[in-house]
Each structure stands twice: as structure tokens, then as C-alpha cells.
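Our consortium's second objective concerns turning raw sequence data into structural hypotheses that experimental partners can test. To show how far this objective has progressed, the report includes one record in full. It was chosen at random from the queue rather than selected for favorable results. The single chain below, 275 residues long, was entered without modification.
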Amino acid sequence: MTSDEGLFGPRTVTWQLHADPSMWVAGVCSLYLQALHPRAVAAVVQNSRFRQEPFGRLMRTGDFVATTTYGTGREAEQAATRVRRVHRTLTATDPETGAEIRLDEPELLLWVHCAEVASFAARRAGFPLTDAQLDRYFDEQRRSAGLVGLDPADVPGSRRDMADYFHRMRPRLRRTPDSDVVYDFLHRPLAPWWALPLNLGYLPVGHLAYSALPAWARRLHGRPAFSAPVTTAGLCGFRVAGLAVPGAVRWRFPGDHVQRAITRLGPSAAPAPLS
């Protein structure tokens, strides 16, 4: 058994939050939010095979988040190295100006980071997160931002910083044909015929994740959503159902990362309620 806690460790908010079942819906929600940045979503649509590999991008993102949260320091750096290599080699074309888009542009990396971690803060689903703990979470997540090539000093590290960042970004965000592609896909990911039960089970979750967006983001998408009470009830219900699954089973998905961390560090590393 090794004592390598990796990038975060059991005493961080990140360690507890990222093991919560609400992260499954939050991850989908973050993709809707990311799609509102015209250059970021153009880069995804032009480079990703998400339409040929349903659930692939979400699972890859989940694996990266889990590895950098629960893996050893070496595993986190190796995962980040792969991501940085991909970002360096891929480009896209701005559909409006024809200009080249580099996937490692700091503005795009920062947008993806903030859209993810802001969506992961799952208080609406019932995760017990105080204002001070949410500030700690955003500050901790600067470490993840540093892994993908951002300067942590340039990354929002508190609730106020994050709110200011989104306020500055909103004039640049809008619905585009590419964001419609992402919206339509996330509502019907077109899984292969053999995965039809999984697809049917996903459909209400896809719209629940959309409905969990901030009101301003839903207005930009311009699509109807579940009512606020239905959304809150759905998020809480999803989380309660997930928590009903024993930890020994739940912590093995995706990719066994949490369970391997517990095996590495001992039973005291098991995610537990925040204090």
C-alpha cells in the first residue's frame, strides 16, 4: 500500500464531490454549457467522433476527471500529458471567420475548465456543500487547470471569481448550428441497437441535465426545459438512487478509480460526507 494521495487527497472537497452520483448528470450538463462558446463547440464538432461513438466523449472526460482526482501523481500527470498532446495537434476552422482554431488556446481551455467545474458543484442535487467548501473546491480545481496547460493564477478560484468570469463571457456566448448539433445529440445519443436499453434510460437524464443549466444558459440555447421544481426533484432523485447502490459497487464506475484509491491509501480514504 502506497501513501501517494495524488493531486488532491481524501481531505479535499474534490475527493468527496467527484465520487458523488450527481456527477453523472453534472457531466452532461457541462457539455451543454460548453457548447455555447462558438469557437469551443466548433472545435468539438470538427474533431470529435461523438456521433460515431455515443457516450465516448463523456466517458473519456469522466475517466480523465477520475484519474486526476483519485490516481497517483504519476497517473494524473500521464493523463494530462496525453490531453495536452491531443490539444497541441488538433485544429479547427472558425465557421464564421475561417480563422484557425487551436485547441490549446488558453481561452478555450479556460472555458472548458470553468464550464465543467461550475457544473460539477452539485448543490441543487442535494450534495451538502457550504459556500466556504465551494470556494475551496474552485480553488482546488486550479490544480486540474494547471495540468492541461493553464496558469492556475489565471483560473477562477472562488465563487465570486467564477461568477465574474461567466459575467465577462456571456456576451461571447450564443446558440449556433454547432451548439444545436450538441443539444440534439445529448438528447438522443443514438447508441447502437444493442445498447437500446441504455439509450432509453439515458433520454430523461439528458433533458434533466439540460434543465439544470443556469437560466441564462437555457435562454441562449432557446429550448424548453423541465420546470424548476421538477428539475430539482429529478436531480435529488437521481442522486438518492445512486447513493442506494453500495459504495463497493458504485466506486468501481467509471474505471474503478475510487476503489483503487481506497485500496492504495486504506479504508479512511473512502469518500464520506464533508465536515
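The partners drew two points from this record. The chain is about 60% helix and 0% strand. The chain has a mean pLDDT of 91. Both points have been shared with the crystallography group to help prioritize constructs.
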